[in-house]
Structure formats: C-alpha cells, structure tokens
Amino acid sequence: MKKKIQHILAGREKQITKEERVMQPLPHMDFRFANPFIALHHMGPKQITPGQELRIHPHPYCGFAPVTFQLQGEGYHKNSAGHNGIINAGNVQWMFAGKGVLHSEGPTANLLKNCGTQELIQLWINVPKANKWDEPTYQSATKTQQPNVLQQEGVNLRLASGTYDGQTGPIKSITPVVSIVGEIAQGKKIQMMATPGNWTLLYIAKGSVNVNQETVSKYNLVVFEKDNEEIILTAEEDTQILFLSAEHIDEPVVAKDNFVMNTAEEINQAIEDYKNGLFGTLEF
Fold first, then answer.
1. DSSP sequence for 42-74
2. Are the C-beta atoms of residues 65 and 125 closer than 8 Å to each other?
3. Each residue of 201-210: pLDDT tens digit?
4. Whole-number Å distance between alpha carbons of 8 and 215
5. Which of 14, 31, 43, 241 could make an S-S bridge to 24, C-beta 3.0–4.6 Å?
6. Phi, psi (rounded to 5 degrees) for 112
7. Spatial contact of 143 and 91, defined as CB atoms under 8 Å apart
8. Over the stretch 1-57, which tens digit does the pLDDT of each residue have?
9. What is the dihedral sign for C-alpha 28, 43, 6, 256?
C-alpha cells in the first residue's frame, strides 16, 4: 500500500557563517526530528569566482555523523582526527564525529582558482547513545562506487548506504540508513519501497516531482507516515532527489549548536571537552 505524506517541509534560508547560507527544511518549526535524521542543509548552487576564499573555519562536531552529498563542484574536508579528502560531484563523504572532532570544509583550491558551481547537501545522522563517545571515523565513496538502483532509461539513482533493490551501498554506517541520491528525467516514473515502521524522507534538490499524486517542488522535504511501504514518483521536470529511510532511534535527543546528545548534561560535557581542547587542534 502507498505511504501517505505526513509533512511537506519547505526549506528556509539559514545563515550558517558570515559568508554562507543554506536552505534548511529540517529541523522545521512544524516538525523537529525524524530520529536518526536530525538536520538537512542544502548549500548552493553557488557560482565560485576566481580568487574567492570560502573556507569554513574549524568548528566542533560531537555525537552524530555529518554526511555530505556533493551535487556539483568539489569539496575539501579536513578534521582534527587526521582525516581529509576531496569529494567531487556525485561523491559522498560520511564522517562520524563520535566523542568530538574539529572539522573544516569548503571548495577545493582548484575550484577557487578556476571557478565553477558548488552545490552540496549535508545531512546530520544521529547514532545510538551507546556510540556517542566512540572514536571519530571517516569514509568516502565515489560516484562510480555507488551501485545504481531502479535502473531504467532516464533514471540515475545511486545507493550510498544500506541495502536496496538487491544492491548494497559502499558506506558502512553505525546507524543503518538507506540513502539514495540521483536524477530522474522529466516524465519518468519509478516505484520506491520502504520498510514499514521506518522513518522515510524524500528531499527534492532540483526540479519538481509528483509524489503519490501530490506535486512537490525543489527545496521541499517530504516526511512520510511510518505505515505502508510504496512510494510512486513521477518527475514533472528533470529532478534530483535524496531518498532516506531508517529505523527510529527511540532515545531522547538534545541538540545544541553542533552537538547532538541524549541529555543536557551530556551537551554540557561535550562543550567542556571542546573548550578544554579534547577535540584536538586543526589548521586549515
């Protein structure tokens, strides 16, 4: 049976640094969390001109996994746990912050020098209480390492994590998440399936799509009811989507700044750890 739409959450502009703005449909004034999905930020598309300096200064993360889906351009990522990497269009970076890490990100030196279009989605994925204080980890996957699912002409959907349509994504997540990103050409129709009882979300990054007979345009996030399993999508324009599904984490969520924990006391502890230098140092 078809899954009913529970919410359509419009992305609102949010200033995250002095220079950078994102569209944020989650959290939203009408709907806070779909735990483990805590936040979704869509940056760009933004034209980079030669000579710009757009690096985001080192900032702390703790207690969750900030995940980047690079839609256009190139991103350079570095953290205080010794991880760094460049991700190109179609690539995915899955960083687990664990007990705390400093992180810096931005367009690559090559993109800043030669210009181009930068666009990405950053998703915050929660982890269970038992893993909040684990050591930080880092993974990435290229576009070609992500298997195609629901294959047909005009449909290019790539599985980054989880198991779907007989395929398994290359990213291994502490929190089991099915994440699919990609493009659907105008007029193409697909049937997507989700496990009943799971949170299931669909973000429209570009274009417009008919979702179970309701039109949803870009920068909107669809939150489905947990019952049932079927989602019918028809692209009304050339469309780019991010599909997400995961089992609910039935634990309290306390989020402040870039810290996602279970209690206010844990938030305070994480902030103290950061202030006391336990997240390490990072030159960027």
1. EEEEEEEPTT---PEEEEEEBSEEEEEEEEESE
2. yes
3. 999 999 999 9
4. 10
5. 14
6. -65, -30
7. yes
8. 999 999 999 999 998 777 778 999 999 999 999 999 999 999 989 998 887 777 778
9. negative
Share of the chain above pLDDT 70, in %: 100
Dump pLDDT digits (tens) for 216-274.
999 999 999 999 999 999 999 999 999 999 999 999 999 999 999 999 999 999 999 99
pLDDT at 266: 98
Residue among 53, 143, 134 nearest 100 (CA): 134
State how far the Cα of 8 lies from the Cα of 210, in Å rounded to an integer. 13
Number of C-beta neighbours around residue 252 at 10 A: 12
Q: What tokens does 140 get? A: 């990435």
